[in-house]
Design a protein that fits this description.
two-stranded antiparallel sheet, 2 domains, 358 residues, two-stranded antiparallel ribbon
Length: 358
């Protein structure tokens, strides 16, 4: 009931804040984005001599420029100088042959590196077979560690402000949401929606500006230079739906036979156990008391909240990406996992990792 009340309060505040932002902020947002894109056109025309190419819609439009992923004027000039050096005094046939030669050299280098890596691995295996020449294991740094450190730094930078907010001014946080974060999310969604509409308008403006620029070249008796367009990125592939036909059943039959995948029918109502009210009593006597171990009924309630409601079957419940069951052997962890799968009518996957059943 507390979760449902929090969610109801949040939805009401969300609708109220969304209406306020649309009434007072949308017009200014549209004007700001329009001025920003026009200034971008001017910077390129006066700094580079030509207008920029409008980013493709699949790239996100001009949001690509905001993120800093679009080439700057200096980078474009460097690319032009590099292209001029590579193509100076060469015919199209010569450039085509050179590109083919470079592609072949790159392919050969990749094959040589792969072969060298294979030989290195073979020599390492042979060395480890001899205790006198075994080099031992070298602990390597995880490739995910830099990204993890960056995420932690960003997390601290983003949340340090909210950790220091005075409770008397920001008391709404106890009701399940933070007003500043709510407003920021709505502003972000509105900004992206407005930018898509303005990008379509600005594409037409850019087309007319380029036509006028071409007319100026023609009036001066000059030829407008041909610009090679940017390579259009590929659209992300659409995942194909899984068709559970006889062929797929036949292919997956061995997995079910080995009990790697099962379809449990156990329900959470089959899990018995009382709640541990001693924890509540201890807390009344001493707020700083150490809680006793939870009873099976406490674990059952936690499983219901985290694993079943956390899958999204009830509005307002916190969604969980993963849950770990930790406990001694033959204490019912598998039974609880089967009960969760049975309640959700889902199949159950079993993964073996380092001789442990997960």
């Amino acid at each position: 009931m507390t979760r449902l009340k929090i969610n109801t309060t949040y939805l009401k505040e969300l609708e109220k804040e969304n209406t306020r932002i649309l009434m007072f902020k949308k017009g200014n947002q549209i004007d700001d984005i329009t001025d920003e894109i026009r200034n971008w056109f001017k910077e390129w025309f006066y700094g580079y001599g030509f207008f920029p190419e409008f980013p493709y819609e699949i790239e996100g439009g001009t949001i690509l420029v905001v993120r800093g992923d679009y080439p700057s004027i200096e980078e474009k000039q460097e690319m032009d100088e590099k292209t001029l050096k590579e193509t100076k005094g060469k015919t199209k046939e010569q450039m085509k042959e050179e590109r083919a030669r470079l592609k072949e050299e790159k392919k050969m280098k990749a094959q040589m590196a792969k072969e060298a890596k294979r030989k290195e691995d073979e020599n390492l295996v042979k060395a480890r077979c001899n205790p006198f020449s075994d080099p031992g294991y070298k602990i390597l740094e995880s490739a995910a560690l830099p990204s993890l450190n960056e995420a932690l730094i960003g997390y601290r930078a983003a949340w340090s402000l909210f950790d220091e907010m005075p409770k008397d001014k920001f008391g709404e946080t106890i009701y399940g949401y933070m007003k500043p974060l709510l407003t920021e999310d709505l502003m972000k969604d509105m900004h992206l929606e407005c930018r898509k509409i303005i990008d379509e308008m600005m594409r037409l403006d850019l087309k007319m500006l380029i036509q006028k620029h071409q007319a100026d070249f023609k009036s001066m008796g000059k030829t407008f230079p041909k610009v090679k367009p940017r390579k259009k990125p590929k659209a992300p592939p659409v995942p194909k739906p899984v068709i559970y036909d006889k062929k797929l059943i036949k292919q997956t039959a061995p997995v079910f036979d080995l009990n790697l995948v099962t379809k449990p029918t156990t329900k959470l109502s089959e899990v018995y156990g009382d709640l541990n009210y001693a924890a509540y009593n201890f807390n009344i006597i001493d707020p700083n008391a150490s809680f006793p171990f939870p009873a099976y009924g406490d674990i059952k309630d936690r499983i219901r909240l985290s694993c079943i409601m956390g899958c999204g079957i009830q509005a307002g419940a916190t969604r969980r990406k993963s849950v770990m069951l930790l406990g001694p052997e033959r204490n019912g962890k598998q039974f609880l996992a089967d009960a969760v799968a049975g309640e959700l009518s889902k199949i159950f996957w079993v993964i073996f990792w380092k001789d442990s059943r997960v």
